[in-house]
Amino acid sequence: EVYFKNLSKQKQKEVMEKNGNNHKLRVCVATCNRADYSKLAPIMFGIKAEPQFFELDVVVLGSHLIDDYGNTYRMIEQDDFDIHTRLHTIVRGEDEAAMVESVGLALVKLPDVLNRLKPDIVIVHGDRFDALALATSAALMNIRILHIEGGEVSGTIDDSIRHAITKLAHYHVCCTRSAEQHLIAMCEDHDRILLAGCPSYDKLLSAKNKDYMSIIRMWLGEDVKTRDYIVALQHPVTTDIKHSIKMFELTLDALISFNKRTLVLFPNVDAGSKEMVRVMRKKGIEHHPNFRAVKHVPFDQFIQLVAHAGCMIGNSSCGVREVGAFGTPVINLGTRQTGRETGENVLHVRDADTQDKILHALQLQFGKQYPCSKIYGDGNAVPRILKFLKSIDLKEPLQKKFCFPPVKDNISQDIDHILETQSALAVDLGGTNLRVAIVSMKGEIVKKYTQLNPKTYEDRLELILKMCVEAASEAVNVNCRILGVGISTGGRVNPREGIVLHSTKLIQEWSSVDLRTPISDALHLPVWVDNDGNCAALAERKFGHGKGIENFVTLITGTGIGGGIIHQHELIHGSSFCAAELGHIVVSLDGPECLCGSQGCIEAYASGIALQREAKKLHDEDLLLVEGMSMKKEEVVSAAHLIQAAKLGNTKADSILRTAGTALGLGVVNILHTMNPSLVILSGVLASHYVNAVKDVINRQALSSVKTVDVVVSNLADPALLGAASLVLDYTTRRIY
After folding, report:
1. Is residue 218 pLDDT above 70, yes or no?
2. How big, in percent rounded to 5, are the helix, strand and coil portions of the chain?
3. Residue 581, marked binder
4. What is the C-alpha to C-alpha distance for residues 735 and 483, in angstroms, rounded to an integer?
5. pLDDT of residue 14
6. CB contact burial 249-263 (16+ within 10 A = b; e otherwise)
7. Could you point out which of 18, 337, 527, 614 has its C-alpha 20 to 30 Å from the C-alpha of 298?
8. If you write DSSP's letter for every residue of 685-728 in order, what string do you get?
9. CA gap 319, 345 in Å, rounded
10. Which domains does the chain possess?
11. CA 364 to chain CA centroid, nearest Å
């Protein structure tokens, strides 16, 4: 380390000798607006502190000198800098033509100033049209240019201007490793690129103001608390002015609805700013009790305001850059900063086309506290820049060298990515359990809650509401946007009204029940309700084997037997909502009694209840247990014991299972002859035990024209929940249902 320090000192000594021992580097810093001054000021202070090496000339132009934008040149004077030249270069009009005319006016005035100052180097910041005029003038007059913050990527015309200045500049100070790689990829000489970090971070990371509450109260009112207000700063997007004005209007509407104290800063001087100010005045922002509208806030005070805010919203580069130093949540709207590197505190709303989307982002971000980010600097940029300036050899030729390395991509968090996995609350009312889940658009169960299904209507409805409210609250924490509630329940359901008409004996007190109204009223969300068999078919259509299949049938083999029919891609309900009661297809006139009151139904043979009934009979006759099986005295005999016994060679248990599989197979044959589907999906816990038996019956009993049907076992773990979710997701994504 000592060796390299000495080497650096030796190089600086050689440069001083080349430049002439008594020659100080004459540096012209030109500042155009309040934003670039916050980056240039730390460098100016550093240059001023070393008069033995540098002479500083300050040129002020652009919006600094306009009253409507706060006459911000005064803060330069307050910082005790002598302003050498003031240039009025802004042509008012705030439209595209005015911007072009402003560049032209600056190009007319700057040559005279540069001729008088004769600087060795001009320091230019950023991507403003004023800065382009500066860089153009200096380059054509063979004056060296040091460009601050080149190589970064953002939206709108700023990208083009920034990269144009890069091509004109001789030296580059960048803030991030990616920006450095971009500069190299743009053919800039690596030896003339300094990765220093952002100069403003030198001030940000050392900013400690114990009296920040007085600053907050001065700008926002006496009754405001930390983390309980918003800072809004939004500029026009010059490549799409009309859309940016509409977006600003939606932002103000969202902020009004969000009902938090908000400090709104006026936009910059770009084309479209006048229309944005008109929007503010049209909505009465300057007189609204929740808003404070200001033209300018001194940077030292602005730092404290954003550091203790509950959120910052807008499209200013300050939000995606400087605010990360404090971990303050940021909502970046639109495309103006697209491509910039950001910390995890930034949530992008690139397609900010609705008030609800912006409001949702506010709900996600407001009041959070993120880890502080140092992507753009570590607080030591200015010493590096001063050292870089000292190393410049004025005798070197100005001609630039070029190279062609690869460029790295940048990926950042985006609200549209979050909203691609828009979610549904799925509710499954089973005979034993009540389950609620947050299900994403891709069928991922993000969070699941399970409780025993209460025996009474009142307790059941109360538990559904409680679990749904809890899940909806948790959805915000896991960045899921709930579009609605889908409910899967046993029994006959009127899906148009959201009413359970009557249920099976497995769910008590569950007839003539309006589920839609109380749940929708409590959650303020749309609610869909359907039979569990239908939901299983919908789950297969959206997430399972039925995806893209025009005609298929799903059979659920569980505690009972149910199903759903998809015909020409749509679910069949029937005239009285009784279609697809597949468990009650009669396969024997004198078969066992079914829970529905009939005899010989598939459910009476092949359901879990039927198998349990047969297992109990065998157990009572001491014919169930075989070698390798054991049961505790208190253990309840179940269908699982029957299946286990059959696997271990119990011929009576095996005969019962074969009979059940045959009954199910006969039912499937009837379905094939009635509906002629191309696919039969067996779902539920017993599906894998029945699939071969069903295929055998089809081969023996079905007409040859339907024997080619595919019979498969579902690969969905939770078809009822996924089907309930698809009720919501299919509708909200405009699928006909």
Report:
1. yes
2. 45, 20, 40
3. yes
4. 14
5. 58
6. bbbbebbbebebbbb
7. 337
8. TTHHHHHHHHHHHHHHHS-GGGTT-EEEE---S-HHHHHHHHHH
9. 10
10. 20-198+381-391 (3.40.50.2000), 205-365 (3.40.50.2000), 413-543 (3.30.420.40), 545-715 (3.30.420.40)
11. 10
What gap in Å lies between CA 248 and CA 280, rounded to an integer? 9
603 among the known binding-site residues? yes
597-629 pLDDT, tens per residue? 899 999 999 999 999 999 999 999 999 988 888
Of 595, 600, 593, 645, the residue nearest 618 (C-alpha): 645
Neighbours of 72 (CB within 10 A): 22
pTM of the model: 0.52
Residue 278 is assigned to a ligand binding site: no
pLDDT, tens digit (0-9, with 9 covering 90-100), for 359-417: 999 999 999 999 888 888 888 999 999 999 999 999 888 877 766 554 444 445 555 54
Q: Is 596 annotated as a binding residue?
A: yes
Count CB atoms within 10 A of the CB of residue 282. Answer: 10
CA 255 centroid distance within chain: 19
- Residues annotated as catalytic (active site), given as ranges: 532
Query: What does the block give as tokens for 647?
Result: 């696997």
Specify whether the CB–CB gap between 303 and 214 falls below 8 A.
no
Token digits of residue 687:
């599906």
Let me know how many helices (H) and strands (E) the chain has, helices first.
Answer: 25, 26
